């Protein structure tokens, strides 16, 4: 199950976040800071799957944008890795280009696109032709 979905720029600012389990607001900021620090400090040669506390982080970098997904131990890392790629490709087609600046203007539509792929913390599988 997916615990959270974050989009972060290289400066560590969260551009888009969604939690699929209840986390108190003050704990969210601490969690996001630790997760962001953990992912941004890794080199491009390192694996995009990270064990973190009682869950795993799956992340992917696109230019100055990081997409980080927190999952439990039972979720398939490669499926989530491909979900991230699919999500960014859809955003790229919809908005012409994906940049961290655009989320200020298009946050609502980005959230709708994300929610079509993730329902209640579970991947929504669909066949594309």
- Molecular shape: globular
Quaternary structure of the protein: single chain
Tally of individual helices: 3
Strand order of the largest sheet: 2-1-5-4-3
In this structure, how is the largest beta sheet organized?
A: 5 strands, antiparallel
Please state roughly what percent of the residues sit in beta strands, choosing from under 5%, 5-15%, 15-25%, 25-35%, 35-45% or over 45%: 25-35%
Q: Ranges with pLDDT <50 over ≥5 residues?
A: none
- Residues in helices, as a percent range: 25-40%
Radius of gyration, whole Å: 14 Å
Give the mean pLDDT.
80
Total strand segments? 7
Structural class of the helices, strands and pairings?
alpha+beta
Order of helices and strands: EEHEEEHHEE
Distance between the termini: 26 Å
SSE inventory with pairings:
Elements: E1 2-9, E2 14-19, H1 25-40, E3 49-52, E4 55-62, E5 65-71, H2 77-95, H3 103-117, E6 118-119, E7 122-123
Antiparallel strand pairs: 1-2, 1-5, 3-4, 4-5, 6-7
Helix pairs in contact: 2-3
Molecular structure report:
- This protein is α+β, with helices and mostly antiparallel strands and 129 residues long.
- The chain is 39% helix and 29% strand.
- It is built from three helices and seven strands, in the order ββαβββααββ.
- The chain has helices at 25-40, 77-95, 103-117; strands at residues 2-9, 14-19, 49-52, 55-62, 65-71, 118-119, 122-123.
- The strands form two sheets. The protein has a five-stranded antiparallel sheet, with helices on both faces. Strands 6-7 form a two-stranded antiparallel sheet.
- A hairpin with a 2-residue loop joins strand 3 and strand 4 (55-62).
- Helix 2 (77-95) packs across helix 3.
- The longest helix is centred in the middle third of the chain and has 19 residues, at 77-95.
- The radius of gyration is 14 Å and the shape is globular.
């Amino acid at each position: 199950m997916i615990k959270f979905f974050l989009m972060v720029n290289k400066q560590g600012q969260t551009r888009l976040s969604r939690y699929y389990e209840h986390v108190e607001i003050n704990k969210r900021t601490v969690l996001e800071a630790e997760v962001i620090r953990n992912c941004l400090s890794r080199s491009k040669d390192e694996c995009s799957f990270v064990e973190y506390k009682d869950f795993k982080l799956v992340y992917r970098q696109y230019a100055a944008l990081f997409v980080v997904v927190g999952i439990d131990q039972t979720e398939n890392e490669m499926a989530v890795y491909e979900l991230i790629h699919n999500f960014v490709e859809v955003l790229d087609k919809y908005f012409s280009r994906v940049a961290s600046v655009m989320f200020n203007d298009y946050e609502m539509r980005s959230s709708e696109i994300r929610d079509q792929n993730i329902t209640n913390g579970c991947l929504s599988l669909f066949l594309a032709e």
